[in-house]
Amino acid sequence: EAGVVQSPRYKIIEKKQPVAFWCNPISGHNTLYWYLQNLGQGPELLIRYENEEAVDDSQLPKDRFSAERLKGVDSTLKIQPAELGDSAVYLCASSLKGNTIYFGEGSWLTVV
Amino acid sequence: LAKTTQPISMDSYEGQEVNITCSHNNIATNDYITWYQQFPSQGPRFIIQGYKTKVTNEVASLFIPADRKSSTLSLPRVSLSDTAVYYCLVGLQGGKLIFGQGTELSVKP
């Protein structure tokens, strides 16, 4: 069974440029999460979806970050414009409601 | 959500048993205790989850005392490949997970 798939794996962009990350959750998982992980720290939740509905986006910086999960499967996280402080790992995770949460390998962003 | 406290780092040698204890004094009645392992350049990987007493799988054991205010992850006979960061989390099963800084385990030959 395929795990959570994320792309791109690595991305380097200049500040003020836009960037987008894509996530394909485990088949059948209705809950999808985006986490941000800074170096040396644990992951922090940005947004959680139940199917196509964002049920918790309280930690998402909405001035520059946006996310969507239009058909309740794949999801995209966008940053526009990117800032130097956005350099981090963006982790996608999924779960079947009420069960174990599985993470992808992450998308590593470097803003220069 | 209950806050967790765990040691920042631990050292061990190959073949030893490693026990990592996590404190969660404010755990709620419906909360589960979950442990994740994370290697550099990878996403966190689920290790084990429990509610009370003892849970064991092919990778680890989880010991939870009756008051559930702490838990201990036990890794039997660690190898170099067990060097990683281990996170203890408390929350509703399948719900929001709040990560702390984790415990950086270093296994030496």
CATH topology annotation of chain B: Immunoglobulin-like
Classify the beta-strand content of chain B into a percent band: over 45%
Overall geometry of chain A comes to globular
Number of domains of chain B: 1
Strand line-up of the largest beta sheet of chain B: 1-9-8-3-4
Main beta sheet of chain B: strand number and arrangement?
5 strands, mixed
What's the total count of β strands of chain B?
9
Task: Give the tags.
A: 112 residues, mainly beta, Immunoglobulin-like, 7-stranded mixed beta sheet, 49% strand, B: 109 residues, 4-stranded antiparallel beta sheet, 9 strands, 48% strand
Protein described:
The complex is a heterodimer of chains A (112) and B (109). Chain A has 112 residues and is mostly beta strands. Chain A has a single domain, classed as Immunoglobulin-like, CATH 2.60.40. Chain A contains no helices and eleven strands. Chain A has strands spanning 5-7, 10-13, 19-24, 31-37, 44-50, 53-56, 65-68, 75-79, 88-95, 102-103, 107-111. In chain A, the strands form two sheets. In chain A, strands 2, 4, 5, 6, 9, 10 and 11 form a seven-stranded mixed beta sheet that branches. A four-stranded antiparallel beta sheet of chain A has the order 1-3-8-7, with no helix packed on it. The model of chain A has no long low-confidence stretch (mean pLDDT 94). By secondary structure, chain B is an all-beta fold. Chain B has a single domain (9-108), classed as Immunoglobulins (Immunoglobulin-like, Sandwich). Chain B is built from no helices and nine strands. Chain B has strands at residues 9-13, 18-23, 32-38, 45-50, 53-56, 61-64, 70-75, 84-91, 103-108. In chain B, the strands form two sheets. Chain B has a five-stranded mixed beta sheet with strand order 1-9-8-3-4, with no helix packed on it. Chain B has a four-stranded antiparallel beta sheet with strand order 2-7-6-5, with no helix packed on it. In chain B, a hairpin with a 4-residue loop joins strand 5 (53-56) and strand 6.
